[in-house]
From TrEMBL:
<feature type="transmembrane region" description="Helical">
    <location>
        <begin position="432"/>
        <end position="454"/>
    </location>
</feature>
<keyword id="KW-1133">Transmembrane helix</keyword>
<dbReference type="GO" id="GO:0022857">
    <property type="term" value="F:transmembrane transporter activity"/>
</dbReference>
<dbReference type="Pfam" id="PF07690">
    <property type="entry name" value="MFS_1"/>
</dbReference>
<feature type="transmembrane region" description="Helical">
    <location>
        <begin position="316"/>
        <end position="334"/>
    </location>
</feature>
<feature type="transmembrane region" description="Helical">
    <location>
        <begin position="88"/>
        <end position="106"/>
    </location>
</feature>
<feature type="transmembrane region" description="Helical">
    <location>
        <begin position="399"/>
        <end position="420"/>
    </location>
</feature>
<dbReference type="InterPro" id="IPR036259">
    <property type="entry name" value="MFS_trans_sf"/>
</dbReference>
<keyword id="KW-0472">Membrane</keyword>
<dbReference type="InterPro" id="IPR020846">
    <property type="entry name" value="MFS_dom"/>
</dbReference>
<feature type="transmembrane region" description="Helical">
    <location>
        <begin position="113"/>
        <end position="132"/>
    </location>
</feature>
<dbReference type="GO" id="GO:0016020">
    <property type="term" value="C:membrane"/>
</dbReference>
<dbReference type="InterPro" id="IPR011701">
    <property type="entry name" value="MFS"/>
</dbReference>
<feature type="domain" description="Major facilitator superfamily (MFS) profile">
    <location>
        <begin position="47"/>
        <end position="459"/>
    </location>
</feature>
<feature type="transmembrane region" description="Helical">
    <location>
        <begin position="206"/>
        <end position="228"/>
    </location>
</feature>
<feature type="transmembrane region" description="Helical">
    <location>
        <begin position="276"/>
        <end position="296"/>
    </location>
</feature>
<keyword id="KW-0812">Transmembrane</keyword>
Length: 499
């Protein structure tokens, strides 16, 4: 199938094809030809639906093991006790190891081919997950599933950063991440329906969950080769005036329109920037809760006293609330032009949910706790995952920073799935829930520190620029504005961090 995919240039090749019109007219003149609001909506239509669907499938294929467990996965494959938790952790080992390499490949390659290819590979792996016959096979396929899924999320976030001005970017990332919550709701209902196929073709219901959902991913991946856009300079859905306006608009806003091949200096800058590590540690705190609640929700609900088929269906409302919360909170954050307090507030809502889980003994309040903990942590993640994409420059540094955030964050996911082990399941996972609350506090503290430091740095830069202006110094080190910005990236005094 890959041979029939339309060819598109690599990122470096597309950089050589910059339209002359980009530098031929000021943005104000181009603005007379292009309606920016309509252009953003056009970009939305070409990026958001296809990438959100791919992420929905990614989250569905990684988390449906929680639904499969209720249908007898661990019993049939003879996966005793905490070995199930090990199978969950192995997925994240593959995910973490290939996160940064995948984004480095994307920077040098082309999203139209790279992202659908990853989708095709993990779809095939998901099908294989339904064909395993023992614990060893499960461990192996979980590692390859993590490896093949590793590049989609950071790659999509980087692609967003190449199309959207910073002020509108995080709301689009929130819509994209909302696919994870929709996947949870969709996955519970779908798992219940597929589970009714138990015995068809001599296979158990849990096997059909992996096979059918994996086949769905494969089919969508083939269509994605024709739907996922390439870089803006080569995007066929843009007219020449739209492309020129977008690149000029992005050039004034950030580095997205710059001609920047992959470079190792950007990698070193990312690894040496304490704010980049702050974004990573922030996700580390939230990822523990995100994946532990996602992967163990069916089990937690079943232990409230419900049958397995009821637990499958009862996972739908918490995820539906999470999706609504994501979009409402992120829209409010977008309007307020600030996210840190919303991240901290989301952690607080999730914290209250865990208080209900550990302090009450009846199903009603505990089920409400599941709703609050899920809505809070999903909303917080939707807000924090776009932060480095908006605040880190240059392009290579940002590609590494986005991938590093996911890599370090998912180490928290590994800890989470190992903490929620059978010998700590007493009192409805009371001890793991307390650890999750500690992680939420940690994440809130990191968010507060980033908020404080970024605001302080913005104010410091304003003072320095004001002093330079008074002294008649307009440029740094004698370089012109473009050269200075490209060299310094987010270290440029004129770069303003998004809070």
């Amino acid at each position: 199938m890959a041979a029939s995919v339309p060819e598109a240039p690599s990122h470096e090749a597309s950089l050589k094809e910059s339209p002359a019109t980009v530098d031929a007219a000021p943005v104000e003149a181009l603005g007379e030809l292009v309606d920016e609001a309509k252009l953003i909506r056009k970009i939305d239509l070409n990026l958001l639906p296809v990438l959100t669907v791919l992420y929905l499938l990614s989250f569905l294929d990684r988390s449906n093991i929680g639904n499969a467990k209720l249908d007898g996965l661990t019993t049939d494959l003879n996966v005793p006790g905490a070995n199930y938790n090990t199978s969950l952790a192995i997925y994240f080992v593959g995910y973490v190891l290939f996160e940064i390499p995948c984004n480095m490949i994307l920077k040098r390659f082309n999203p139209r081919v790279w992202l659908p290819t990853l989708t095709l590979l993990w779809g095939i792996t998901s099908v294989a997950q339904g064909l395993v016959s023992d614990q060893t096979g499960l461990f192996a396929v979980r590692f390859f599933l993590g490896m093949t899924e590793a590049g989609l999320f950071p790659g999509s976030i980087f692609l967003f950063s190449m199309y959207y001005p910073r002020r509108v970017r995080h709301y689009r990332v929130a819509i994209f991440f909302g696919g994870a919550a929709v996947a949870g709701a969709f996955g519970g209902a779908l798992a219940y329906a597929i589970g009714l196929m138990d015995g068809v073709g001599g296979r158990r219901g849990w096997s059909w969950i992996f096979i059918l959902e994996g086949c769905l991913t494969v089919v969508v991946s083939l269509a994605a080769y024709f739907l996922v856009p390439t870089w803006p300079r080569s995007a066929t859905f843009l007219t020449e005036p739209e492309r020129a306006y977008l690149l000029r608009r992005l050039s004034n806003d950030s580095d997205a329109a710059d001609v920047e091949p992959f470079n190792w200096d950007g990698v070193r800058q990312a690894l040496g920037d304490h704010a980049v590590w702050g974004y990573a540690l922030l996700f580390h705190g939230f990822a523990f809760v995100l994946y532990s609640i996602s992967l163990f929700m069916p089990t937690i609900i079943a232990e409230l006293g419900f049958a397995s088929w009821q637990a499958q269906l009862m996972t739908v409302p918490p995820y539906a609330l999470a999706a609504a919360s994501i979009w409402l909170a992120c829209y409010a954050s977008y309007k307020a032009s600030i996210r840190a307090p919303f991240i901290i507030g989301a952690a607080g809502v999730s914290f209250i949910g865990y208080i209900l889980l550990i302090s009450t003994s009846t199903a009603g309040p505990q089920y409400l706790g599941v709703h609050l903990s899920t809505a809070g942590v999903y909303t917080g993640n939707a807000l924090l995952l776009s932060w480095p994409a908006e605040n880190v420059s240059s392009q290579t540094k940002r590609a590494v920073a986005v991938a590093l955030q996911i890599s370090i964050g998912d180490l928290g996911a590994i800890v989470g799935v190992l903490v929620y082990r059978p010998d700590l399941a007493a009192n409805l996972y009371r001890t793991p829930h307390i650890v999750a609350m500690a992680y939420l506090v940690f994440g809130s503290l990191v968010a507060g520190w980033l908020w404080f430091w970024l605001d302080k740095e913005n104010k410091r830069r304003e003072v320095v620029l004001s002093d330079r202006s008074e002294k008649g110094v307009e440029k740094e080190d004698g370089a012109d504005d473009v050269d200075a910005r490209r060299k310094l990236g987010d270290r440029d005094l004129r770069w303003k961090y998004q809070l």
